[in-house]
Every structure is written in C-alpha cells, then in structure tokens.
Amino acid sequence: IYYQEYKEMNSLNNYMFSFYDFLGYLIPGSFLVIMIRLISEFKLVDNEWSYKIAIIKNENIFTIIVLMYILGHILSFLSAITVERYSIWTLGYPSTYLLNYEKGGYYKSIKTHNNTRVFMRTFVWIILFPITIFDTIFKFNNIISAALDEQLQCAVKRCICNNLRENYKIYSICKDTELDFLRILYHEIVRSGDKHFNKLQNYVALYGFSRTIALVLVIAFYFSIYRLYKYSLWNINFIIFIFLLWGSSILLYYSYNKFSKKYTLEVLMAYLVMNKSKNENFFHKCKKEVKNGKF
Questions:
Q1: Count H helices, E strands: the chain?
Q2: What is the pLDDT of residues 250-285, one digit of tens each?
Q3: Which of these, 79, 165, 186, 243, could form a disulfide with 215 (CB 3.0-4.6 Å)?
Q4: CA-closest candidate to residue 286, choices 89, 153, 146
C-alpha cells in the first residue's frame, strides 16, 4: 500500500515539476529574450514605424532552450526578492491579512530601526518603480488584502490553534503572527493526499509565473525607455507600446497577488474541511462569539 502511494505521489510530483519548469522558468526566460530582441529591432524609417525580428537564427535550438531555461531560474529568483518581497512588505503574507492580523505597512513593518532594511526596501521600491508608483498612488491594498468574514476567520483560527496544540505542541499560533504556520498546514494536506493538492500546485505555478513575468515586463519597460532616449524613437506607436508594458507589469503584479491569495485560501479551507469532523462546533461557537462581539 505504502509503495503504491509512493509511486502515485512520485508520478504526480514529476508531472507537476515539469509543468512548473515550463510555466515558471522556460516561458519567462524565453519571453524576456523575445522582448529584448523585439525592442532592439524597433526603428524609425522616414518617420514610419518599422521593425524586423529574428529571434532564432542559426544557433543550436537545444542550446537556446537550455539558456532560456537557466535565464528563467535567474528571473524567478530575482522576482522572489523584489516583486514578492514588495508585496509582503506592503500587504503582509496572505495568511495574515486573510485572518485579519494587523498590517504593518511598507516601512512600519520593520520592528526595529535598521538602516540596511530601510535601504533595501527603498531600493526595491525604486527598482519596481513602474509598479510601485501606481500602487502607492491608487492604493489597491484594501481591495487586494480583504480579510475573510469574521465567522470564517474565527473558525479557521480555532481549527489551526487547536490542531497545532494537539499535534505539535505549538501554543503561540494565536498570538505570534510571525509563525510560519501555513507551511505546516500545507504539508498536512500533502501527507493526507487530499484532492485539493492538484489545485494548490496549479496556484503555485500561476503565481510564480505571474510574479516572474511582472519583473520581465518591468525590465522591458526600462529597456524601452533607454532605447527611446538614446535613439530618439519619438513615435506614437512606440510610446503606446511603452505604456502597454507599464500597464501589463501592473496587471501581472496584481495577478500574482490574486493567485498567491487563492493558494493561501485553498490551504486554509482544505485544512478546515479536513478537520471538520473534529471541530463540528466551530461555526456554532464562532457565530455566537461574533454576535456577542467577543471576536
């Protein structure tokens, strides 16, 4: 039985690994190369918009795929320490704002004054300027980081607190919002072989893809601005193209937040459903507590 389960899980992991490799690494790496080559070939001929592009010439196709795949890994890492960190510093982790824990703010979340951390956050804000300036002005934080309703928050918190106390002797979960409890919940779901697992892996691939493409679009935006000023490509079509890059980077950033939130919500709901037999009275208790203003 255990061997059969191992074979099934191993087969599933191999499939998902290949899927994430394709969506999370190969496509972003290829997309960046295409965008750079495309922007490099934009030219003004007699004040008319013209470009030609040959992404692949006579190079070895296998070598190109491998290089794009490696580039995708580099981009994924860079997006994790820029796009993802900006989101966390601005909104907090999805597991914290879904359960309505206090949001710190971009600089306020630094617990002790640290010049290095302040510099890093400022540096990331500048690097992601096409995204951050829009996000700072229009403040979509309240829409993106909307919490669960009070009764559901109460039920999820009770479920997590009780089970972590019983199974892992962790007693600080209800007070310590820095505890990485979502990692424990995720591995509980994986171990149980729950049907939510496939959906979770899809969300991981989608938010990784969105995060990396957002960074690629920011890089393409900066490269376009560089080409615009260096070669005086003052043409309405090229300017529209730059604005499209800007808008697309913002949309992909919010797409990343959407899928990251969906992933976290799926983990929380899957864990709640898995443990509902043990906690049948959670909703009843929470309904009373919310009604009485105790929650």
A1: 13, 2
A2: 999 999 999 999 999 999 998 888 876 555 555 556
A3: 79
A4: 153
